[in-house]
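Protein folds are increasingly written down as discrete tokens. With that in mind, we are printing a sequence and the tokens encoding its fold.
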Amino acid sequence: MAIDVVCGVIENSDGQFLACLRPADRHLGGLWEFPGGKVEPAESPASALIRELREELAVEVEVGPPLTPVIWAYAETTIRLIPYYCRIIAGELQALEHDQLHWCLPQDFNQLNWAAADVPILQEITARSQ
């Protein structure tokens, strides 16, 4: 059974999206991702995303429409990655659980080494922005 994981596709007023670099000593360390985390029991995906982004980035977000979920099998587990468009409504971005934060335009996504599960989301964003 897949574990539900949410991620925030955070867009700024310049049309750039927030990429977060996973710490080198963690699973998928050194790869870029959209921020987020596991949905806890009895928690909705949207409320999980609000909690996770508060914990990881010290910001409050407004959760917007979802993108297409991605089923991804790792050696140890399978996840269902549920992406949502988000915008920051309060707080100052801080890299509390990532090594680096980076704003990038869709045409620059391929300059970063992304976690494989995020690639279908990148492709969907790019297709929508053309």
